[in-house]
Design goal:
Length: about 190
DNA sequence: GCCTGGATTGTCT
DNA sequence: GACAATCCAGGCA
């Protein structure tokens, strides 16, 4: 599990809308698998679409904790989604990791996502969690110090960034807080 | 290819 | 008791 400079506490201790675009191009790595972050969304406590909007509960407690920790929640009765806590402790901010491109351990991901094409391995928040074997037991892990899980800057700058409204929510659509790395031109020819 | 609806359970009102 | 920061299969074009 190596991929360059590890993102430190100070990186995460800023506003989610500042951290989110800078996470594009970073490498999410566990002991077995790694992938480059290509899609994220920001959520803040004054944002009606955020879990933290209505205050702290048992479910979202991690989101109000110190920055740099992993906030994993369960949704739609069957899916896990992974976020990174940002801002100051108590803020209730996070960045949702929506998609990565596989870099290492692709065979492991294929096993965990049996029957899926390679491009379907990690191109959604719940898919990413399955490929990385993240679930509720990983909620609260510290991405800055955990020896088996972290975010790294390997010097690869994210390609052109695009922003759009966020996905799967009914409020807060005026905030264009979804960031995408430019798609691979070889797979998405300009038309 | 695009669109639609079902799955399934923790959490909050 | 309703709903949710989603995914997938299946139908149709």
């Amino acid at each position: 599990m190596n991929g360059g400079r590890r993102l430190d506490r100070a990186f995460f201790a800023r506003d989610a809308t500042a951290v989110a675009p800078e996470l594009l191009g970073a490498v999410l790595a566990t002991g077995e698998v790694a992938g480059r972050v290509v899609e994220v969304e920001a959520y803040t406590a004054d944002d009606p679409a955020s879990h933290s909007f209505r205050g702290r509960t048992a479910r979202n407690a991690t989101m109000f904790g110190p920055p740099g920790h992993l906030y994993v929640y369960f949704t739609y009765g069957m899916h896990w989604c992974a976020n990174v806590v940002t801002g100051a402790e108590g803020d209730g901010q996070a960045v949702l990791l929506r998609a990565v491109t596989p870099l290492r351990g692709v065979d492991v991901m294929r096993r965990r996502r049996a029957g899926r094409a390679d491009r379907e391995l990690t191109n959604g928040p719940a898919k990413l969690c399955r490929a990385f074997a993240l679930d509720g037991s990983d909620d609260g892990r510290d991405l800055v110090t955990d020896p088996g899980l972290g975010l790294f800057d390997d010097g690869n700058v994210a390609a052109t960034v695009r922003t759009t409204p966020r996905i799967g929510i009914r409020v807060g659509l005026d905030r264009h807080w979804r960031w995408l790395a430019a798609p691979d031109p070889s797979r998405h020819p300009v038309g």
